[in-house]
Design a protein that fits this description.
The chain is mainly alpha-helical. The protein is built from five helices and two strands; from the N terminus they run ααααββα. It has one domain. 40% of the residues lie in helices and 5% in strands. Strands 1-2 form a two-stranded antiparallel ribbon. α2 packs across α5. 25% of the residues are buried. The N terminus is likely disordered.
Length: 154
């Protein structure tokens, strides 16, 4: 019985420590939906580009090498619509808000003063309304057609 308790304590303790390090937040789908028909009021040009520039691309930009990303995963680049669409669920689950969840994991508490710099200032934080708009925009972009871009490789 003691051996079983010790075996189970290892994963439980690791999970507790991980939850504590992230403030107890768990990434969760927001359940946001795009209105039907899509009103096209939230687009990359009208919403997404500015949101990503204000809150994300100091660490999540395609031109930042790993050493300047402050822990942001490679290929989680939000300076283009294509980059956002590649990890659209991740963005929703870490930063969005909707009927099923409000996620405030990102942005983190500390940010670089300029893209690629060390973490030195308090991060700007989206409002709850901006997080809701983010999730609706992402839901709409998921449903919209996005033509493949020809890379010129035959």
């Amino acid at each position: 019985m003691v051996a079983l308790a010790r075996a189970l304590a290892g994963p439980w303790l690791a999970g507790l420590l991980a939850a504590t390090a992230c403030g107890g937040a768990e990434p969760s789908p927001t359940g946001a939906a795009c209105p039907s028909p899509d009103p096209l009021t939230l687009t990359w040009d009208s919403f997404g580009r500015d949101f990503m520039a204000r809150f994300c691309t100091a660490c999540h930009a395609s031109d930042l090498p790993r050493s300047q990303r402050n822990g942001a995963p490679i290929y989680h680049d939000f300076d283009t619509l294509t980059g956002v669409l590649q990890v659209v669920d991740h963005v929703d689950e870490y930063s969005g808000a909707g009927p099923a969840a409000t996620n405030t994991i990102m942005p983190p508490d500390r940010c670089p003063a300029t893209p690629g710099a060390p973490l030195s200032i308090a991060c700007p934080r989206p409002t709850l309304d901006e997080r809701r708009q983010l999730s609706v925009w992402l839901a709409c972009e998921r449903a919209r057609p996005h033509p493949l871009i020809d890379a010129g490789i035959d």
